[in-house]
Write a structure and sequence with these properties.
The chain folds into two domains: 28-61, no CATH class; 73-171, no CATH class. It contains seven helices and six strands; from the N terminus they run αβαβαβαβααββα. The protein has helices at residues 2-28, 43-52, 63-77, 91-99, 122-135, 139-154, 168-171; strands at residues 39-40, 59-60, 81-85, 103-107, 161-162, 165-166. Helix 3 (63-77) runs parallel beside helix 5. The N and C termini lie far apart (89 Å). The model is unreliable at 18-24 (pLDDT under 50).
């Protein structure tokens, strides 16, 4: 019985410590901006509020984006570069080409919709910006076109339409 009581008190003490820390962290975030507008830090909270009020007027501080961007900057400082893209046919070749420059590649299909000013791609954006800064804005596009041409020449019987044009006519020797 004595051991049970000690276990209960210890568990209760630890849980209340965690709750106090959580309460302290909540108070560190401001509830209102300098103009008195409510601040929203989370997309889920924003969506819940927007469902109730379509004319929602709040200040958005996208902490997820900020944290992802900081993580990317740390990785970049440590020598890590990652290209995020979606090129189903050319991805394998493009990955090999990028690795020669010390760039890792990960398949990623990003959505276009941004809700309330939130951007879920802070890490990906920062990596892309760094690659462009180091290698030039046309670097990825140039490697992609090379990978695309190689894919088409290796698969001459597979239709490859881009912008309404079958690229086999452009890349295959007749």
């Amino acid at each position: 019985m004595h051991k049970f009581l000690i276990l209960f008190i210890t568990t209760f003490s630890l849980l209340s410590c965690n709750q106090n820390k959580h309460s302290e962290n909540k108070t560190l975030l401001k509830k209102y901006d300098k103009n008195g507008k409510l601040i929203v830090y989370n997309i889920d909270v924003y969506v819940d509020m927007w469902i109730k009020n379509k004319n929602l007027d709040v200040t958005v501080i996208d902490t997820f984006y900020i944290n992802q961007k900081a993580r990317a900057l740390k990785d970049i400082k440590n020598g890590k570069l990652i290209y995020f893209g979606f090129h189903p046919r050319e991805f394998e070749k493009l990955t090999k080409m990028l690795s020669k420059y010390g760039i890792e590649a990960k398949e990623h299909l990003a959505g276009c919709v941004r809700i309330g000013g939130f951007n879920p791609y802070g890490y990906e954006d920062e990596m892309y910006d760094e690659i462009n800064k180091r290698f030039g804005e046309n670097f990825i596009d140039s490697l992609y076109r090379i990978a695309q041409k190689e894919y088409i020449t290796q698969h001459p019987n597979e239709e490859y339409v881009e912008d309404g044009e079958d690229l086999r006519a452009k890349y295959l020797i007749k």
